[in-house]
Specification:
Elements: H1 2-9, H2 15-44, H3 51-78, H4 82-99, H5 112-121, H6 123-136, E1 140-145, E2 148-153, H7 154-161, H8 170-189
Antiparallel strand pairs: 1-2
Helix pairs in contact: 2-3, 3-4, 3-6, 3-8, 4-5, 6-7, 6-8
């Protein structure tokens, strides 16, 4: 960021040019980082088979990395010290992660602060819910309870166990995350 500040102050290029160039130059590497480890983790854990499910999975990983990169670039532009930037950026990610649905289900979030602003503005909510929908929608599970076979559908698990909002598709969750990327990149320009 220091080189960018010097170049911008000397008038060599604008903030908009930097944001566009940074986005274009980092995209191929972020895509590789999401596809290669994503393939290892996806298939080793036995997640839902099919190329469309894997493509959605890697798309969510890729878009989440773009969001994190955008947030960290905003923090880096505001904080002059490298170490303080890492600490503040990690703190922002931690607060979003705490309210995103990984450590507690949405109905279990106690204070309105954690539920209403943070739960809905953190990208983790949309990533988790999209990934849960990707795995459980359209799937039926057969299990035995007291020698009686019962069928449990994935939508029931999503609604009752994971408390996922089922009013929209997993693709809307992905679009919301990509919208956050655009919003954070535009904020970086200003």
């Amino acid at each position: 960021m220091k080189v960018y500040e010097r170049e911008r102050l000397n008038g060599h290029y604008s903030t908009t040019a930097f944001v566009i160039a940074n986005t274009l130059s980092s995209t191929p590497y972020l895509l590789l980082v999401s596809v290669i480890p994503g393939a290892i983790a996806y298939y080793l854990t036995g997640l839902h088979r099919g190329m469309d499910h894997f493509a959605y999975y890697t798309s969510v990983l890729f878009s989440c990395m773009l969001v994190v990169e955008s947030i960290m670039m905003i923090v880096a532009s505001l904080v002059p010290n490298y170490l303080m930037g890492i600490i503040i950026g990690a703190g922002i990610q931690d607060v979003m992660l705490l309210s995103g649905g990984f450590f507690g289900l949405p109905n279990d979030l106690s204070h309105p602060f954690w539920k209403y602003p943070l739960f809905y503005i953190g990208f983790h909510k949309y990533a988790y819910q999209g990934l849960f929908k990707n795995e459980f929608e359209g799937v039926r599970y057969v299990y035995n309870e007291a020698v009686v076979q019962k069928i449990l559908d994935g939508e029931y698990i999503l609604r009752e166990k994971w408390q996922v909002e089922m009013g929209y598709s997993k693709w809307i969750d992905l679009l919301i995350i990509l919208g956050m990327v655009v919003i954070y990149r535009v904020l970086l320009i200003f």
